[in-house]
## 1
Amino acid sequence: MKKPVIGITTAGVLNERAGKGARFMTAFVANVKAVEKAGGLPLLIPCDLEPENLREAYEYVDAVLLPGGGDVDPSTYHAERHPKTGTTDLQRDNAEMTIARWAADEDRPLFAICRGQQIVNVALGGTLIQDIPLQFESDLSHNFPESMERDYLSHDVAVEPGSQLEQITGLKTLKVNSMHHQAIETLADPLKITGRATDGMIEATELPGLYFYHTVQWHPEDLTHIEAMQKLYNALVEAARNRMTP
Ligand code: MN
């Protein structure tokens, strides 16, 4: 039986060791492995494709995964750049926002992680907190130091009762890692919050009425040893399988 193809968008990064200006296409291997473990076939999508090829790549896959990464360019939501906002990549922002809108309009399964959640929120009309430490009061650590393991469980997420997130994970509280510099400020109108940290931070959303359209602010790819986290990938692949054209 043909496996559902899960398109994972990639980041363009400079690799000066390969020569000045050499850009590489990168992705978290952990996302690739989590999709494979769920029975899907991961396929990387470059964000530097020409528009017609981006569309063709999107149509080729059965579902999309928008992974984590750097800060989102504030011009995408018409905000002034905060001094603490890091390096941004407008090409990637635009490609991923386009995919997020296509998937929303066409009810294509989508799973968005960390930066992916922020991209989806902006694509659908929301805004972002550009620098959590300076712009969001909290007693929690949402962006712990890089010296710590990526599977460190930093804070809890209260799952909205009756949400798809609760059905998928089977849990009312999730213990999650937290490696985000930015976050949702104003929620995009169509999205519904499905998970919050104890400080009120929006940690998960879904697009009601769609078959499978989920965002999470943490990094489940580093937590697949926890059953509830692998279940997110299993549900994505299952949704893609059910949406495959025979
Ligand atoms: Mn967090």
Note: The CA atoms of residues 14 and 23 lie 4 Å apart.
## 2
Amino acid sequence: MLNIVIFGAPGSGKGTQSDFIVEKYGLTHLSTGDLLRAEIKAQSAIGKKAQVLIDAGNLVPDSLIIELLEKKILETPDSPGFIFDGFPRTVAQAEVLDSFLKEHQTKVSIMLNLHVDEQTLIDRLLNRGKTSGRADDNLETIQKRLNVYKTKTLPVLDYYRSSDRATTVDNNSTVEACFEHIVQAIQTVK
Ligand code: AMP
């Protein structure tokens, strides 16, 4: 199994690169942001709880995210592997993911850390906000999300670095150049 964590700040291109990876390697794409937005659309109990937090740029509680994600993984038992996008966002989530995958005799093969300069992130998110319809793609919430990323999510990078699974890929230029580097990185663990 090939399991990839795609990591990076909001607006770093995780969704776009995930689509390319899925196309090339046939993995199952699990985006916790997309899963939450589907719950919000369905107006489920989880969705209602998550909406207030997401709109304010805060994280959703670990327990809720983990429940949602584990359910999805178990729904696709024949998958050749998963790409985790927007997850883990806390060290606690990373630890739970490791033990969950271990229980299923598999592991995170590689963590791809997409690096983008902060001003470029803000410009890209503001630009996305013009068409995304996402209430959290406005300047105030973007700044809040970037703060949450630095304080709560960035330690996840050290977590994977300490077990030698993290690879940083620059995504300041084109999507194609970034994907080329991603493919090279994936070849090292395939
Ligand atoms: P994203 O689409 O990945 O940018 O996620 C949008 C929002 O959903 C985030 O700003 C968080 O509020 C929430 N969210 C997504 N994934 C997670 C996660 N793994 N842990 C906590 N909150 C999350």
Note: The longest strand covers residues 110-115.
